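Hello, quick one for you while I still have it in my head. My current little project is about how a certain protein chain folds up. You're getting the sequence in one-letter code plus the fold written as tokens. Would you mind checking whether the tokens look sensible for this chain? Here's the protein in full, and shout if anything looks odd to you:
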Amino acid sequence: MAQRVEVVLGDEEREVLGRWARRPKSSQALAFRCRVVLAAAEGKSSSEIAAELGCNPSTVGKWRGRFARRGFDGLHDEPRPGKPRSIRDEDVERVIVKTLEKQPANATHWSTRSMATATGMSQSAISRIWRAFGLKPHQTEAFKLSPDPRSCSASTRKRRSKRSTDRRRCCR
């Protein structure tokens, strides 16, 4: 059987763990881990702590050991397995700045294809970046009046109803 790791807390550590366990804004996982460590510092066995908190004794042993080895840093989640991000923050910033501050040659606004060509990234990556930051370069923020003399004037637009016959009368 594995040797139980003893947890010894100073007054300051005990105060911080108690505060984290009671704080309403703490994640429930962190609060649970703090309660495990506080109970272990009182000298309780892993099986007693597990019965009290409603978990497995191996879970208690895991958090007891991580706190003994790494202190407060051991209570936080470790990075999850999986493929790391392939798009760096600098690339994301470059796309955002280019989208907002520069206009493409021979076009009125950026498309995902034109931005992908200009930055050397994939079209789907550009689309994900724009979606994440709510960018829609094809939509303008301000209304623009048409310089075309055949378009409706502002005064006729106000009087117009939604019927199509009024549109024909307005734009002759």
User: Anything to note?
Assistant: Residues 28-41 form the longest helix (14 residues). The radius of gyration is 31 Å. Residues 11-75 form one domain.
